[in-house]
């Protein structure tokens, strides 16, 4: 056959059908041979109704002829035509052979990741996969065939009664495309004789997939291979959680190539490991490989910020608290993997209001969230409340952040001593009268009203050795009421000088002087009737 005749070897012979399924009643066949235009013919059977479109490749098999045994990177081979019965023209294609890649428009090329010439030894067979808009996987076999120029016979391939796509390589095309990322390939252990069941006695590597991976989906994560696939047609499948059990369809496997795909992003905080079984069965054989357990480990990403146990914490701090006094503890947790930087939290105070009398009145332990008093100067009378903004950040303080508020009420400390309104009180009491009011003394206190640090407590500390008087606190808590316990005797003592001290119900928070007052009690003489002593006397 001459050169002119060879030029038509690349003309396409195509049967328009969908992945091995004919549209009933609608079959279009196009044949073309060199130098015989009269043989061109088209046979059309038109049904009564327009057939329903079925997504699929436009041929059940694609064969690409090349005239050289060595292909350069970027070399364009041709196109694998596909439709999903929508207006889409760009799809995600995957090639089982790392030497070849398929662009979104279906153009098959030698991979850009190949650094050396690709040697075509006779036939190079592999599968190309894509997915419909509903996520259904569709695959088609592809053959790259080396055919020397001096062989001019037209090659017509027939596989399962289907015609195939033939084209010729365009070695001048240098357009770049993105190749598949390498994925781990897991092999069923080689059996001694064909496919048969056997004890699983080897360790299958764990497949690791990062959570929140962006795709595009379906995303190839691994490939399962049987050593028998060189001599037999093997069908692959998976069963178990994530496959045919909840969550159903998270992982899918191409039945022809054994490629394992992820269909959507994973969330480690929901499930951190997926375990399911992979199966390999030879076409027409009832016995298959022992199922292989597949473990997919979800790699944690820092996708969760620390969360505090409360949106707002409420606490109290006494105004007289010393430096280092523990006030309150805040707690934040991170849903990412424990004992990793993704969940390693550090705390810090990022704001204090008011910033008086200093902006660092409080400090926080960065590791455990304990807040302590950092400096003196708390004064309830001036600044009764403080609001802190506390931040927790993962990645040892450099990652995602969460915040909370801490509202601290400054409680009163007994830092103000009660003081008598006057230093000297004088009173007169008729003699011989018990339970008689002598005097009422008043005091003032600068602490919080009606608090234990404000309520007064009185004590007679001198001048009453006989226990003739008592003092108690009045109902308003700022009065000291002195009364007689026994009747006083003018003839015994005409005056009594008492010293009364005042304190509070709780001890002083700081060193404070104790206030005292003097009470002078004058005993009034009463004209008493003479009393014989003894009352009766006998005379003889």
Automatic annotation (TrEMBL):
Q: Which domain of life is it from?
A: Eukaryota
The cross-references to SUPFAM superfamilies, in alphabetical order and at most eight, read: Cadherin-like
Q: Where is the Cadherin domain?
A: 207-308, 309-420, 421-532
Instruction: Choose one Gene Ontology CC annotation of this protein and give it.
Output: cytoplasm
Cell location = Cell membrane
Q: Where is the signal peptide?
A: 1-25
Which keywords does this Swiss-Prot/TrEMBL entry list?
Answer: Calcium, Cell adhesion, Cell membrane, Glycoprotein, Membrane, Metal-binding, Repeat, Signal
CDD domains registered for this protein in UniProt:
Cadherin_repeat (cd11304)
**What are the coiled-coil residue ranges?**
none
Keyword Membrane among record annotations: yes
Broad class of the protein's primary localization: membrane
One matching Pfam family: Cadherin
Protein name as annotated: Cadherin-1-like
């Amino acid at each position: 056959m001459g050169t002119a005749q060879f030029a038509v070897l690349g003309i396409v012979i195509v049967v328009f059908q969908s992945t091995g399924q004919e549209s009933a009643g609608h079959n279009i066949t196009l044949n073309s041979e060199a130098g015989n235009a009269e043989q061109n013919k088209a046979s059309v059977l038109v049904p009564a109704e327009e057939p329903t479109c079925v997504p699929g490749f436009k041929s059940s098999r694609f064969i690409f002829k090349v005239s050289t045994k060595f292909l350069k990177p970027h070399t364009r081979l041709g196109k694998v035509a596909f439709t999903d019965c929508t207006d889409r023209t760009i799809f995600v294609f995957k090639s089982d052979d790392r030497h070849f890649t398929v662009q979104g428009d279906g153009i098959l090329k030698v991979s850009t990741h190949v650094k050396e010439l690709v040697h075509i030894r006779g036939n190079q067979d592999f599968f190309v996969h894509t997915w419909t808009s509903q996520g259904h996987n569709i695959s088609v076999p592809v053959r790259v065939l080396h055919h020397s120029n001096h062989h001019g016979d037209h090659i017509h391939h027939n596989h399962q009664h289907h015609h195939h796509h033939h084209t010729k390589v365009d070695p001048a095309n240098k357009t770049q495309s993105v190749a598949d990322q390498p994925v781990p390939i897991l092999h069923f252990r080689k059996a001694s004789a064909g496919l048969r069941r056997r004890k699983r006695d080897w360790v299958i590597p764990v497949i690791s997939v990062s959570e929140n991976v962006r795709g595009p989906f379906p995303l190839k994560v691994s490939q399962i291979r049987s050593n028998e696939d060189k001599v037999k047609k093997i069908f692959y499948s998976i069963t178990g959680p994530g496959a045919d059990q909840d969550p159903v369809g998270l992982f899918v496997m191409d039945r022809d190539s054994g490629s394992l795909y992820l269909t959507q992003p994973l969330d480690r905080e929901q499930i951190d490991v997926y375990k399911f079984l992979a199966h390999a069965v030879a076409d027409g054989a009832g016995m298959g490989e022992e199922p292989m357990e597949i473990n997919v480990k979800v790699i944690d990403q820092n996708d969760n910020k620390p969360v505090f146990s409360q949106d707002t914490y409420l606490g109290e701090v006494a105004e007289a608290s010393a430096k280092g006094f523990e006030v309150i503890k805040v707690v934040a947790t991170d849903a990412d993997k424990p004992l990793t930087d993704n969940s390693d939290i550090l705390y810090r105070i990022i704001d204090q209001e008011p910033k008086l009398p200093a902006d660092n009145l409080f400090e926080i332990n960065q590791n455990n969230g304990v807040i302590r008093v950092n400096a003196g100067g708390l004064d309830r009378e001036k600044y009764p409340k403080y609001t802190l903004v506390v931040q927790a950040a993962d990645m040892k303080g450099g990652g995602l952040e969460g915040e909370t508020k801490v509202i601290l009420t400054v409680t009163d400390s007994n830092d103000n001593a009660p003081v008598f309104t006057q230093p000297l009180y004088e009173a007169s009491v008729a003699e011989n009268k018990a339970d008689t009011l002598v005097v009422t003394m008043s005091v003032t206190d600068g602490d919080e009203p009606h608090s234990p640090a404000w309520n007064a407590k009185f004590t007679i500390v001198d001048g009453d050795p006989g226990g003739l008087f008592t003092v108690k606190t009045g109902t308003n808590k700022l009065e000291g009421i002195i009364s007689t316990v026994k009747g006083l005797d003018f003839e015994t003592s005409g005056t009594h000088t008492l010293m009364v001290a005042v304190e509070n119900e709780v001890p002083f928070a700081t060193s404070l002087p104790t206030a005292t007052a003097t009470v002078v009690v004058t005993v009034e003489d009463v004209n008493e009737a003479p009393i014989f002593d003894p009352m009766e006397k006998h005379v003889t």
